[in-house]
Specification:
The structure holds 3 protein chains of 3 kinds. By secondary structure, chain A is an alpha/beta fold. Chain A is built from 5 helices and 5 strands, in the order βαβαβαβαβα. Chain A has one domain: Rossmann fold (3-Layer(aba) Sandwich), CATH 3.40.50. Chain A has a 5-stranded parallel beta sheet, sandwiched between helices. Chain A is globular, with a radius of gyration of 13 Å. The chains are: A alpha/beta, B alpha+beta, C alpha+beta.
Chain lengths: 122, 324, 212
């Protein structure tokens, strides 16, 4: 059964890198979004069991997107993948309910470790 | 990292004798390298400094600031710089002008370079001290010359009117002529009402714009032979030769109205502006020097302020008599 | 700008993939710069989406003029870099916020003009070193830096770039904005590299794009 993964980033290259970083051996149904608005639509359509989310985006940034998602669903599995690595960014993101805060460029091994927390995979 | 293995002896010789101060500290602020420039200018040989805490060896250094500066290089792995323009010197070294002089100590600009270990961490910071005394002296001389030039000019930069120095000069000459030939001479002094409040509310840029506009409006009222100048921050004068009190009064009123009738339009606001005016005529008997004329106009100006501003007062020796 | 010059700039433009890749590289480098700044100020720094563009001389001076011209109360700092890439960074601070910066950096309350300048030079140096350092790291390049200097303090924009006397026809222009949250401290950084460096950057971008 393909796992719906939603990748949110305004950079096409970055979205590509994130989907390449997903651990092998698993079936994924990947949906891409270029900003928070698109992400929310895709998520409402059920495409985001796992969400990889960038912070610095136009239209609606990562913090706002994360907040909106978490307000509607406490269970949402959101991994923030960010170029902005200041400690307060990490704090904020964790407070808003992200499962993990990863820095860019995304590290395959680190992602695999985080995904171990995703229950349906265990 | 140099790709070509340099001869360490050669490098060592260069660093030691280069005409730049070079010293290196580790994370504990202990000195690891102290080159010849540092030795000869500080009077402290390397054996006495290397291995010691920099600040213990040189208690005159601004420890709080300098330590923070060096630590930021360790933490951020970034170059850092200081300029003589903000800190004339770090170390009190004697400069290279024992005969010609001109500065108290050597002026210094410094570079702080991170030295990376194999693992990418900063293991030491190399500080280079450049003697920039000559540069700073040329710079200071240039600034002084510019200041002198500014003083020598006749005009106020902001408004284009004559500046105070020139006003005094001109008035002195005219007063002298008045004393000698008995021609009439009057002085107008006016001042923007509530200027401080305007600056506080609208900011200095609007304040400047207002002064410029006031100057323009005043100038548009005067005749060719009259002399308009900016006497102080928001104070202006008009020197009126061959003019008696009555004539001066007419002009004063004209200026008051020209300035006060329409607000000044600036980018951000339309500001209503008024001026208080003092008028005084030169009197041979009562006034010995031109300063007396200024004093009287000033007193009249003060009366206008007291009377509620935006009005004209003529100086009267007997203040209880009616004023125009 | 005459039409031949315009055409020349057109031919040097990055394509969509290259632009995207460069923006990401700058994004990551900015993240580093923001983190460095946040560390020394112990605050949160808001980062803008970077603007990346190859521009002719008129456009560059126009872009700088826009950033400087709107606020009359600004100070600009200039810092040059060299080695693998050559160029200059211009960092523009809003004056009102910059006084608060001194406080955040632990200078005492008496902020005279010189302290204010020194603080801005320090902050600029941190931002330039981190941002360009971040770009250099991702591109596997080496960069060295000159000392920062106050370039402009409420004077005339025309003095900055003498359009007829610059030795380049087009340059890579990166525009980034940093804001220290809640303090009104805000600065724009413009990084400029002339055409000779653009080719090298393009090569590096392709290396990155091909490796995905």
């Amino acid at each position: 059964m393909a796992i719906p993964v939603l990748i949110v980033d305004d950079s096409a290259m970055s979205r590509k890198m994130m989907s390449r970083a997903l651990p092998a051996g698993m079936d994924y149904e990947i949906t891409e979004a270029a900003n928070g608005e698109e992400a929310l639509s895709a998520w409402h359509a059920g495409k985001g069991d796992i969400i990889l989310l960038d912070l610095t985006m136009p239209v609606m940034d990562g913090y706002t997107t994360l907040e909106k998602i978490k307000t509607e669903s406490l269970d949402a599995f959101v991994i923030v993948v960010s170029a902005d690595i200041q400690p307060k960014a990490k704090e904020r993101v964790k407070k808003l309910g992200a499962v993990a805060f990863m820095k860019k460029p995304i590290d395959k091994k680190a992602l695999a470790t985080v995904l171990k927390k995703y229950a349906p995979l265990q | 990292m140099p790709h070509v293995p340099y001869n360490p002896k050669l490098l060592s010789a260069i660093v030691d004798r280069i005409n730049v101060g070079v010293f290196v500290v580790d994370r504990d602020m202990h000195v690891l390298v102290w080159n010849y420039f540092m030795e000869s200018h500080s009077g402290r040989p390397a054996e006495k400094v290397v291995g010691h805490d920099l600040f213990e060896a040189f208690p005159e250094l601004p420890k709080k600031w300098l330590e923070r500066k060096i630590r930021s290089v360790f933490i951020l792995r970034n170059f850092a710089f200081t300029s003589w323009e903000h800190r004339p010197y770090l170390f009190r070294f004697r400069h290279n002008r024992p005969i010609t002089g001109g500065a108290d100590y050597m002026h210094q600009s410094c570079t702080f370079q991170p030295i990376l270990a194999q693992n990418g961490e900063v293991e030491a910071v190399c500080v280079s001290i450049f003697d920039v005394t000559d540069t700073s002296m040329y710079h200071n001389r240039l600034q002084a010359t510019l200041a002198e030039l500014r003083e020598m000019s006749f005009c106020d930069e902001l408004t284009g009117l004559f500046n105070r120095r020139h006003i005094e000069h001109h008035l002195q000459r005219e007063f002298h002529r008045f004393k000698r030939y008995g021609s009439a001479l009057s002085l107008l002094m006016f001042d923007v009402d509530e200027f401080k409040a305007i600056n506080d509310i609208h900011g200095h840029l609007v304040g400047d714009e207002i002064l410029r506009e006031v100057a323009k409006r005043a100038q548009s009222c005067v005749r060719g032979t009259d002399f308009v100048g900016r006497y102080g921050g928001e104070e202006f004068v008009v020197v009126l030769t061959n003019t008696r009190c009555k004539g001066a009064m007419v002009l004063a009123e004209r200026i008051r109205v020209a300035i006060g009738s329409t607000p000044v339009e600036c980018d951000q606001a339309k500001v209503p502006v008024t001026v208080s005016v003092g008028v005084a005529e030169a009197e041979a008997a009562a006034m010995q020097r031109h300063e007396a004329l200024i004093q009287c106009a000033d007193t009249a100006l003060y009366e206008s302020k007291r009377a509620g501003k935006n009005c004209v007062t003529i100086y009267d020796e007997h203040p209880n008599a009616a004023n125009g | 700008m005459n039409s031949t010059a315009t055409n020349l700039v057109e031919t040097y433009q990055f394509d969509d993939d290259e632009q995207d890749a460069l923006r990401e590289v700058v994004n990551i480098a900015m993240g580093r710069a923001g983190a460095s700044l946040a560390q020394i100020l112990d605050t949160f720094v808001r980062l803008s989406v970077p603007f990346v563009h190859i521009a002719g001389v008129t456009e560059v001076s126009g872009a700088i003029g826009d950033m400087l011209g709107q606020e009359t109360n600004v100070i600009a700092v200039r810092q040059a870099f060299y080695n693998s890439l050559r160029g200059e960074a211009i960092i523009i601070f809003d004056r009102k916020g910059s006084r608060a910066l001194a406080g955040l950096m632990g200078y005492d309350k008496r902020t005279d003009g010189y302290i204010e300048q020194e603080v801005l030079l320090d902050v600029s140096n941190v931002l330039v070193g981190a941002c360009l350092g971040g770009i250099a790291d991702q591109f596997d390049m080496q960069l060295s830096y000159y000392a920062p200097a106050i370039m402009f303090e409420g004077g005339s924009v025309d003095d900055l770039l003498k359009e007829d006397r610059v030795p380049w026809t087009h340059a890579l222009l990166l525009e980034i904005e940093f804001e220290v949250e809640g303090s009104g401290i805000n600065c724009h950084m413009v990084i400029l590299t002339p055409e000779e460096s653009i080719g090298l950057i393009r090569e590096q971008l392709h290396t990155i794009l091909e490796s995905i």
